[in-house]
Write a structure and sequence with these properties.
The chain has 185 residues and is α+β, with helices and mostly antiparallel strands. Helix content is 62%, strand content 15%. This is ATP synthase subunit delta.
């Protein structure tokens, strides 16, 4: 269900409700960090995703696992929210809700999400340079980087911000040269 329109339609009101709660308590960033942690855990564990999505597993078992897994590591408002999702049988949409919450948080804080694909891991200096360029291009106050490694790029980076793609990879440059040469002959 990841990324489906149906999932987004259900997740959005829950994410907005969580954002309203977080704003009223001035804990938007804290909840955002907790949502990132939850997304990381879900990304790492297919078993957990299957467990919380299973209609066969009892709600009390889901609550128990979530409490043991997340314990006091997340804000108690978010923990209560997760228990509500279990009770309402909406925990299956947890990933979409967290992603939607983070999108709302980025909008609130004038932050853009940039997906950067590079041939190798970026150094701290390269990360700063990419962030500075993205800020200049978008006018955003801050940038959240999501990095991916693709050795096939040979060198350089591909940066995706929203629907815009900036291809500064060696593979992209070679492709553009090839197109211009075949078009010129």
């Amino acid at each position: 269900m990841k990324g489906s329109l149906f999932s987004t339609e259900i997740a959005e009101p829950y994410a907005q409700a969580l954002m309203s709660l977080a704003q009223s308590r001035d804990i938007t960033r804290s909840i955002g960090e907790d949502c990132r942690s939850i997304l990381d855990i879900l990304e790492e564990s297919a078993e957990l995703r299957e467990f919380i999505s299973s209609p066969i597993i009892k709600d009390e078992d889901k609550r128990g696992v979530l409490n043991r897994l997340l314990g006091n590591d997340i804000h108690h408002y978010l923990r209560n929210f997760l228990m509500l999702l279990v009770d309402k049988r909406r925990i299956v949409f947890l990933q979409a809700i967290c992603e939607q919450y983070l999108a709302l948080l980025r909008k609130l804080t004038n932050t853009v999400l940039a997906e950067v694909t590079a041939s190798t891991e970026l150094s701290e200096g390269q990360r700063r340079d990419v962030i500075d360029k993205i800020k200049a291009l978008t006018g955003a106050e801050s940038v959240e980087l999501k990095t991916d490694i693709d050795p096939d790029l040979i060198g350089g980076v591909i940066i995706k911000v929203g629907s815009q793609v900036f291809d500064a990879s060696l593979r992209g440059q070679l492709r553009r040269i090839s197109i211009s040469l075949t078009g010129a002959s």
